[in-house]
Amino acid sequence: MSGAEVNEDQRDSVEARLRASEERFRLAQMAGGIGTFELDLASNEWAWTPQIAVLFGFDPHARKPSFADWERAIFIDDVPKLHAAIATATRTGNYYVEFRVRHADGTVHWLAGKGEIAVDKVRGARRLRGAYFEITERKTLEARQLALNETLEARVAEVGEEARTLEILNRTGVAVAAELDLERLVQTVTDAGVELTGAQFGAFFYNALGASGETYTLYAVSGAPREAFAKFPTPRNTLLFEPTFRGHGPVRSDDIRTDPRYGQNPPYRGMPQGHLPVRSYLAVPVVSRSGDVLGGLFFGHSDPGIFTERAERIVMGIAGQAAVAIDNARLYQASQCEVEARRRTEQELQQLNQTLEQRITERVGQLAASNTRLQQTENRFRLLVEAVTDYAIFMLDAEGKVVSWNPGAARIKGYVAEEIIGHHLSRFYTEEDRQSGVPEKAMAMALRDGHYEMEGWRVRKDGSTFWGNVVIHAIRDPSGQLLGFAKITRDLTEKRAAEEQLRQAQKMEAIGQLTGGVAHDFNNLLTVISGNLDMLHLRLQPEGGDDLLRLVNSASRGATRAAVLTQRLLAFSRRQPLQPKFLSVNDLIAGMSEMLRRTLGESIVIETVLAGGLWPTFVDANQLESALLNLAVNARDAMPDGGKLTIEAANVYFDEEYAAKAEVLPGQYVGIFVSDSGIGMTADVASKAFEPFFTTKEIGQGTGLGLSQVYGFMKQSGGHAKIYSEIGAGTTVKLYLPRHYASDGAAEAPSAAVAIPRANGETVLVVEDDSDVRSFTSEVLRELGYRVIDASDGAAGLRLLDADREIKLLFTDVGLPGSMNGRQLADEARRRRAGLKVLFTSGYARNAIVHHGRLDPGVELIVKPFTYAALAARIRRALDAP
User: Fold this and answer.
1) Whose CA is closest to 469, among 447, 452, 444, 450?
2) How many Å apart are CA 225 and CA 203, to the nearest integer?
3) Listing from the earlier edge strand, what are the strands of the sheet with 465-476?
4) pLDDT at 802
5) Is residue 828 very low, low, confident or very high in pLDDT (cuts 50, 70, 90)?
6) Cα–Cα distance, 437 to 431 (Å, whole number)
7) Among 250, 299, 244, which residue's Cα sits nearest to residue 276?
8) Nearest Cα residue to 128 out of 99, 85, 98, 78
9) CB atoms < 10 A from the CB of 634, how many?
10) CA angle 632-636-638, nearest 5°?
11) In whole angstroms, what is the distance from residue 354 CA to residue 363 CA?
């Protein structure tokens, strides 16, 4: 045998022995549950025996060269611990770790790893070599031992606590059983509760019923100074405290701030400022043997979760002992009080027997004094009733006959006492009420309900009526027997009239809002209609054409009548812009005389009575002239067979009483009195004459706005209007205008008619939102020779103004769309262009330029609808003004 063959045989023998050794080592590992490993710290690759895979719960034949693949089986909480052990081994050379793995079947196993760092001398690589083995049984035994130790310690502590609790309960029970002083008894119970529950502080509140209802008194405090409880109110019957004070049962909360019943009641919505800090809360009612709730034991702690169910049962037991002891103490105190009361009663009885004669004398004196005081009281009451003159206060017997009468009754009803005492109260009622049995029903209602109140018309001695508030009280003696009735009557005639006047004013204001809006829209339409008719008339005149001119004139008259109608609507609604001037009423009336004679005809005799020294007034002359013409036409219609119309002017003075009724200021006024000798009006018709659309004329003969226009104009001018009329005697309408004190010079005389003025080459900016009105206005101005630029709103107007330096006049509507009205446009335009002339137009009064019904000073306005000639004149006047 050659040497090579010998070496080959030796090698095979060694390998066989090595395999046998490895097999024996594998069997030993499996039997001992130990697996070895070698981890390359640089590459994190490792070599392992099959038992390692079994320990980790993997297939022994699976290929998992990276250690990271094995970490998936380790509990995620233990992975950091494993990494920390490897890091420690790299520093110290020793490796040990314990961790948990979860197998594929869901079971959990504890493994321990132990090894050391080895260095490959050839390659210099650092490797961790070691073994893993299972320690699940050891860990289970350790856990059981730990639990057993903890249970034993807890049981020892529990026994000790039970012994302490029993000792405290026994001590408390002996103390309260022998205690008869309520304050010491309750303090003992509260101290025991704090000690047994572990509370930081406790209190006992006593439940008592006082004159104002239930009250809760702080009786005892433990664990905190009494001053700490004095800083906040006592508990109330809130959602949290009510179960305790009603005796419904204990209330225990681990954290009172999270309890849904907490913070639900005002004013604190929780604990008031300065309250002792409370998180854990325990409250138990103290209920007596009779079922009455004596009070409540309350305990608190600043930490949550302090009070257990056991503590609740212990406090309930203490509360039961306390209830019995409190009942006993109260019985003892009651018996002591009864003994003391009996002793005092016996002493008082002895004293009474000794002073009986003296007391009889004193009692007689007291009765005499009481009788004197009663007489004085009756006298004072009689004087009080007699001093009341605004109320009729009198007594009736059980049948309703008057038995007493005060001066107020005499003033209101007109009877003196001798005339009315003994007569039935039905005398004060109207015939209609007497026929309907109203007096008897009133007494029956007072008898049934004890009190009866109503309002209605009542009759005075002279037959006049007044609106009265009547209150009837049934008067009975202590046994319930009816003695009679007390009746109080108050005259509310003036109050009722004032309320009716207010309702009327509100109704007129509502109608005024409506009519003012309608008139505004019509004025825009009429501006276009009447203006274009004027232009058509001017263009037809040179060519003749009588038929066409007649048609145009007829249409113009219709437009004029419509304009008058809308002007009346505005006058009634007090939305026409007045242009008042210093005015002599005498001059105005004198100037109207000839016109009135032509208007009223020869069958009406006109007489004017003008006062010497008549005060001047400050009023819109055109509107006053229109008002007088309206009154004159109405007077003519009231005298179909002819008659006499008198217009009188005089100085008058309103005192405070009359001024209050007329809704004007007291002082000096100029009166204008228009009287006719016509058919007159009934009182009902006269009361409605100033209402809008009210007329007694046939359909088509009147709008019902004439007198309402006069009334609105007078009120807008700060004056007053009044109607006096009798059937067959005629009617007088009285107008009052405030006296004007400023010396503005003589009244202006009516201006003479002038030719239509034309342009001098000026440029006018027209701003109007209504396209028809804007088109008409621009056309008229161009025909008059003006250069015209127009815009539909304020913003566009300002842009045109900035672009054209030749604009001399801004002609703008007051009401414009958008955020800028005509007044704001004019102010901004003048700011940009000093010296720019401005003329406003409007269909009705706007707050932008009209205040208190009058144009603001310095404002030029032409009211829609305006004519061709009027527009030409106002444009020229505005341009020529300094």
Assistant:
1) 452
2) 11
3) 391-397, 482-491, 465-476, 451-459
4) 92
5) very high
6) 10
7) 299
8) 85
9) 21
10) 115
11) 16
pLDDT digits (tens, 9 = 90+) for 361-416: 777 777 777 767 766 665 665 555 555 556 888 888 988 898 888 888 888 888 98
CA–CA gap between residue 197 and residue 122 (Å, rounded) = 74
CA distance 519 to 567: 7
Residues 6+ away with beta carbon under 8 Å from 603: 639, 641, 642, 643
List the one residue out of 193, 200, 233 whose CA is nearest residue 217. 233
| Rounded Cα distance, 856 and 872, in Å | 23
CA dihedral of residues 51, 54, 58, 60 (deg, nearest 10): 40
Q: Which two tokens mark 881? A: 């003004």
Band the pLDDT of 143: cuts 50, 70, 90. confident
**DSSP secondary structure letter of residue 578:** B
Residue 94 identity (one-letter amino acid): N
How many angstroms separate the CA atoms of 151 and 159, rounded?
A: 12
Residue with tokens 């390659």: 123
CA dihedral sign of residues 5, 10, 14, 16 = positive
Residues paired with residue 667 on neighbouring β-strands, in sequence order: 654
Q: Give residue 283's Cα distance to chain centre.
A: 40
Which residues fall within 8 angstroms of residue 254, CB to CB, at 6 or more apart? 280, 304, 305, 306, 307
Between β-strands 108-119 and 854-855, what pairing exists: parallel, antiparallel or unpaired?
unpaired
Report which of 442, 474, 445, 473 is spatially closest to residue 458, judged by C-alpha positions.
Answer: 442
Burial of 516 per CB tally in 10 Å (0-12, 13-18, 19+): buried
CA distances in angstroms from 207 to 139, 235, 698, listed in the order given = 60, 10, 84
Q: Which residues contact 384 (CB under 8 A, 6 or more apart)?
A: none
787 phi and psi, to 5 degrees?
-85, 125
* Number of CB atoms found within 10 A of residue 118's CB: 14
Beta bridge partners of 790: 766
DSSP state of 695: -
Task: At 395, list the tokens.
Answer: 């007594």
Phi, psi of 765 (to 5 degrees): -95, 115
CA–CA gap between residue 215 and residue 573 (Å, rounded): 65
pLDDT digit string, tens, across residues 147-173: 887 777 777 666 666 666 767 777 776
Which run of H or E residues covers position 19? helix 3-32
Listed in sequence order, the residues at least 6 apart from 230 whose beta carbon sits closer than 8 Å to its beta carbon are none
Q: Letter for the amino acid at 122?
A: V
CB neighbours (10 Å) of residue 189? 28
Element (H, E) at 500: helix 493-540
What is the C-alpha to C-alpha distance for residues 225 and 274, in angstroms, rounded to an integer? Answer: 14
Write down the pTM of the prediction. 0.35
Residue 808, φ and ψ in degrees, nearest 5: -105, -25
Cα-Cα-Cα-Cα dihedral of 694, 695, 700, 703, to 10°?
-50
